[in-house]
Amino acid sequence: MIDPLNIARDVIVQEIAGLEALKNSLGEDFKSAVALLGGAKGRIVVTGMGKSGHVARKIAATFSSTGAPAMFVHPAEASHGDLGMISKDDVILALSKSGETAELGDILAYAARFDIPITAITAVPGSALANSATVALILPDAEEACGQTFAPTTSTTMMMALGDALAVAKLRQRGFTAGDFKGFHPGGKLGAALRRASDLMHGKDALPLCHPDASMPEIIDVISNGGFGCVGIVNDEGLLKGIITDGDIRRHLSGGLDTKTAVDIMTTNPRTAEADTLAGDILSYMSKNKITALFVIEDKKPIGIVHVHDCLSIGVI
Questions:
Q1: FRET label pair with 269: which of 110, 127, 193, 302, CA 20 to 30 Å apart?
Q2: Which fold, 197-313?
Q3: DSSP string, 1-46
Q4: pTM beyond cutoff 0.70
Q5: In the prediction, which pLDDT does 185 show?
Q6: What's the CA gap between 232 and 296, in Å, rounded?
């Protein structure tokens, strides 16, 4: 009896072998492709037919989400009017394993007519696509994971990985940051994790603060009214010098707490965040250190506070 788990593992092993071969095959042509795509004054037009077309759609979406304007153009539709979507300032990224996909013919001819550069991803170096390309990225010879049916499996995995590699190389060269990425992903859990402390924090009016000389009744009152389970201790210059949590107070109950002031029980050098710290990093830091609130500081002065519930309420995980 055929064991589907063994088949699945064989497929994954086969595709990993293809990716290893792809990694080892990369050379100067890849650098040239990144430079060509990075030099586009217009958009990156990604195209392909069949399974390669599905991969091309994903690659276009990846480029767009990382700040490189891109779009997918279906090669068959291009022959019926969509060629007008491609401008002289664009760069074409065309995918075809064989390099002989008939539907790509009109796009290749159009690119030649208007001197539009082409980056090709294909497995055949002497193919029509490779010969038409400004830069050709040749996929290494690797068996399709489906065996005798030869349906695109390993080859499309390599195409997908190569598209990701081009996009990531391009964004890193441009210094694209997580903050930039957030602008293209405002929704969902990813957008939530990429929000900053300044987006989540409670402002100065809500800050639970006391002076180092504050008495225990005053400290307890501020903690109770603040609702954050802590109080920040600031000096005369407004600098954050320490923090007291409700847990700190409980731990000192048996040590003559009523005679002590804030400076006696506060934790010095408290953990803090900057205004541009990502929400995902804040939640991770809180979880790791088992704390529920962080003061947000600027020039060592508290300007806000973020509670763990502020992160969870917007879907940060």
A1: 193
A2: CBS-domain (3.10.580)
A3: ---HHHHHHHHHHHHHHHHHHHHHH--HHHHHHHHHHHT-SS-EEE
A4: no
A5: 46
A6: 11
